Amino acid sequence: MNSKSKPSKKNNFFPPIVTLGDAQAVAQQGTWAACFVMGMTTIVAIASMFGLLPATFPVNAWALIDAALFAGIAWGIYQMSRVAALAGLIIYCIERVYMQIALGPKVGAGIIVTMLLICAFINAVRGTFAYHRLKQEGPRSVE
Questions:
Q1: pTM for the complete prediction?
Q2: How do the domains of the chain map onto residue ranges?
Q3: Which of 29, 53, 78, 94 could staple 120 via S-S, CB 3.0–4.6 A?
């Protein structure tokens, strides 16, 4: 008999969620994504306040409220909140559409970062929902 096993096809963008630990690890991608968005938004808002960006750039000091919102989303996802995970995904997608409309379509590294962040927020939704489902099901018996 041939004892060779098939190579596993691991999906790094959307890893499988089997245990509570898997769910937490996958959801934490959203925590880091929200922290990244918060940090970049803060930097851009401060740069705008000090006049380092063109006056036509559609970000101003009010964006600090957005940064605080993403700080709350990061904390919520860290606490495995499904509402925070969904809010992060929806708000981020709406903001990206707004920025595309305001600045015009731009292709480049920004689209790659956007896609990675969307994947991270999707994983936050997957992870938080799986976490609560697995927690409710209780421990599984191994057969």
A1: 0.83
A2: 23-137
A3: 29
- What pLDDT is recorded for position 71? 98
User: In this structure, what token pair is assigned to residue 69?
Assistant: 């919102």
| Alpha-carbon separation of residue 6 from 2, 64, 72, 141 (angstroms) | 11, 50, 43, 25
- Rg of the Cα trace of the chain? 19
Residue 42: how many other CB atoms lie within 10 Å: 17
Residue-wise over 87-116: b if at least 16 C-beta within 10 A, else e? bbbebbeeebeeeeeeeeeeeeeeeeeeee
> In angstroms, how far apart are the furthest CA atoms of the chain?
72
Q: Residue 51 is encoded by which pair of tokens?
A: 């006049």
Map tokens 């996802």 to a residue. Answer: 77
